[in-house]
Amino acid sequence: MAIMMPASDQAVLARRSEIVAALRAIVPGEGVIDTPAEMRAYESDGLTAYRQPPMVVVLPDTTEQVSLVLKYCAAHGIKVVPRGSGTSLSGGALPLEDGVLLGLGKFKRIREIDFDNRVVVTEPGVTNLAISQAVAHAGFYYAPDPSSQIACSIGGNVAENSGGVHCLKYGMTTNNVLGCEIVLMSGEILRIGGKSAENPGYDLMGVITGSEGLLGVITEITVRILQKPETARALMVGFAQVEAAGECVARIIGAGIIPGGMEMMDKPAIHAAEAFVHAGYPLDVEALLIIELDGPKIEVDELITRVETIARGCGSVTLQISNSEAERNLFWAGRKAAFPAVGRISPDYLCMDGTIPRGALPRALARIRELGEKYQLGCANVFHAGDGNLHPLILYDANKPGEIERAEAFGADILRACVEFGGVLTGEHGVGIEKRDLMPEMFTEIDLSQQQRLKCAFDAQGLLNPGKVFPTLHRCAELGRMHVHAGKLAFPDIPRF
After folding, report:
1. Closest CA to 392 of 408, 250, 331, 275
2. pLDDT in tens, 455-481
3. Backbone phi and psi for residue 325, each to the nearest 5 degrees, phi listed first
4. Taking Cα atoms as reference points, which of 175, 141, 154, 148 lies closest to residue 219?
5. How confident is the model at residue 496 (pLDDT cuts 50, 70, 90)?
6. Separation CA 214–CA 164 (nearest Å)
7. Which residues, 6+ apart, have CB-to-CB distance to 316 below 8 Å?
């Protein structure tokens, strides 16, 4: 599929051999990849509908090398696309024909484990799951747990502000990252935040987290680790109507109960997951809730009783409670494997990501069903029910003419509906290129220009990951100009200095 991206700089492409040689001098050995066959692995991220080989791939393994690469590219007007593990589902790491693909895969060391301060200092290429594994012996773990946690890197998690099953209670990535080392496009190395929960001045960590590689390249991250709860048990609850499951979610939260995780799957997703994992999911229900409660045993026992009462009051038709750690893990196994499971029943699918208020869940699912009929495509729904983060999986066959275009239109309409219902375009996957052209559905031109001004403060030349997030690119100088129409200033009564 073709998508509009920034025009290639032919002058840069003409100097390709010179650029590759200069990068090899900075990152020697196997740190530079420039042959078409070897670069094929980097032509897309998890959004494989869009592909573009980069001009060259650079794989540094020190912060100093990252700094020198960016400084060289800034001096010569060369675009740079940072990349983690390539699991992004929004096209955030899609390369550019005239750009350097800067891979952080060699940054895979955990630099420090500090149990006294309950933090881990890690490089960005370390996988999400590896952090929990590194501290498990002492009874700790890292809370945010995307479904791809076995493969996705912590640097990519920070770039996209990733979520996961347990983010309802323990927060998104932004709530669990305390500090980072970041290299600006100029080559300047900054340290932001640290090991303490609070830092003076502006919340720059809040700016960096979720910035999708547009502001700088992260080379070190300090994350918060938590002690594992004394007890964790899960309920698997089936409903004959999706609306009843949505009502159950609302009543649980309304009762002041915050589960460790609360996930929902509809019938197509249930059947796909059960066939793949054999977790014992009921196949005669329209919706399935998996609700995990954690904490001291006496508290968990009480909460299970309360949640069971709420579920039965909402008309649950099946209800099973885990009685062992193995059984709890089995309940979650199907949910964690839902995406690959759906891949077994459809040649291709688009994984969408939008967020709605919990109360709008029944309306959103009804709209998705209507859109499926309109576009004549199937859809399996898997989502973080507790915080309203939807993941509709739109089923299509790329080999059938016109199906991918219909799938994209279907997905765009789902995201428009999320905004219509009071939600947002993305919950955790980021904007990238997938949602870029839908940004005006949620933001005014003034809003978008203000966001681009922030980018300009970090990257005045606009060389870092251009073509992502913003539907209309502006030069930084243009954003600072005052617009005068017909010789009249806007808002002439406002004093100007």
Report:
1. 408
2. 999 999 999 999 999 998 777 877 755
3. -65, -35
4. 154
5. very low
6. 23
7. 237, 238, 239, 244, 248
